[in-house]
């Protein structure tokens, strides 16, 4: 199990900024049987673990006097730098099922896209499931090779779940489908436009010429 070292924290608000600059990320630990506990973690170590575990894989927090199994519950980001500035950890009970949203990963090649020029439409990007914390999947695979025609679609019930994992999302919810290629209206031919312009100009010149001849013959 991935493990993250922690330090106790009694610094809050604007006073946290100098610590962030030193690579210390403020966080809080809480849960059903856990009093909220402010902590510091290493920004560098957290980013590495977050990338690997996401928000649906249980990790362990080393609190010095004890260790806690947790999920990364929420990550606040700096809108300019794109870096984490605060993290919420949720202490799970390993013997109690919990609900979590699991990311969908689309794999394979759709024959309807490859052979018919169809457009893959991803309707959903995550599914809600329920399982014991240790059984929560990191991600769920969606095999789009089953989409062979424009009539095919993949629903939530089609996703293969491992033993002990229960689908909470609506099983009839569409995850992915294929749309027929959009036919663009062909623009008018430049040659045709040019011909029509010449025809109009020529007609006008002919009318003026006939008018001049009539006036000369008077």
UniProtKB/TrEMBL annotation:
Q: Which CDD domains match?
A: Ribosomal_L25_TL5_CTC
Q: Which InterPro entries match?
A: Rbsml_bL25/Gln-tRNA_synth_N, Ribosomal_bL25/Gln-tRNA_synth, Ribosomal_bL25_b-dom, Ribosomal_bL25_C, Ribosomal_bL25_long, Ribosomal_L25_dom, Ribosomal_uL5_bac-type
Where is the Large ribosomal subunit protein bL25 L25 domain positioned along the sequence? 4-89
What keywords were assigned to this record? Answer: Ribonucleoprotein, Ribosomal protein, RNA-binding, rRNA-binding
Establish whether keyword rRNA-binding is in the entry. Answer: yes
Gene Ontology biological-process entries: translation
Q: Among its keywords, does the record have rRNA processing?
A: no
Q: Which GO terms describe its molecular function?
A: 5S rRNA binding; structural constituent of ribosome
Q: Large ribosomal subunit protein bL25 beta domain: from which residue to which, for each copy?
A: 98-182
What are the record's GO terms for cellular component? cytosolic large ribosomal subunit
Identify the domain of life.
Bacteria
Looking up SUPFAM superfamilies in the UniProt record yields: Ribosomal protein L25-like
* Family as reported in the entry's similarity comment: Belongs to the bacterial ribosomal protein bL25 family. CTC subfamily.
What this chain does, per the entry, is described as: This is one of the proteins that binds to the 5S RNA in the ribosome where it forms part of the central protuberance.
Self-association and partners? Part of the 50S ribosomal subunit; part of the 5S rRNA/L5/L18/L25 subcomplex. Contacts the 5S rRNA. Binds to the 5S rRNA independently of L5 and L18.
Can you name this protein?
Large ribosomal subunit protein bL25
Which species is this UniProt entry from?
Answer: Candidatus Tagabacteria bacterium CG_4_9_14_0_2_um_filter_41_11
């Amino acid at each position: 199990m991935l493990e993250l070292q922690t330090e106790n924290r009694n610094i809050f608000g604007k006073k946290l900024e100098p610590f962030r600059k030193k690579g210390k990320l403020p966080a809080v630990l809480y849960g059903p049987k856990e009093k909220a506990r402010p902590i510091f973690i290493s920004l560098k170590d957290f980013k590495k673990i977050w990338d690997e575990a996401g928000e649906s894989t249980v990790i362990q927090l080393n609190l010095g006097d004890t260790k806690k199994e947790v999920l990364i519950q929420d990550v606040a980001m700096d809108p300019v730098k794109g870096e984490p500035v605060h993290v919420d950890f949720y202490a799970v009970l390993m013997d109690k099922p919990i609900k979590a949203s699991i990311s969908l990963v689309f794999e394979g090649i759709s024959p309807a896209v490859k052979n018919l020029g169809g457009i893959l439409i991803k309707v959903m990007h995550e599914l809600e499931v329920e399982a014991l914390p240790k059984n929560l999947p990191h991600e769920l695979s969606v095999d789009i090779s089953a989409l062979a025609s424009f009539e095919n679609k993949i629903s939530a019930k089609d996703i293969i779940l491992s033993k002990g994992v229960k689908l909470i999302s609506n099983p009839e919810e569409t995850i992915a489908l294929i749309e027929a290629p959009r036919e663009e209206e062909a623009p008018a031919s430049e040659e045709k436009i040019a011909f029509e312009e010449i025809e109009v100009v020529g007609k006008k010149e002919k009318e003026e010429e006939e008018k001049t001849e009539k006036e000369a013959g008077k």
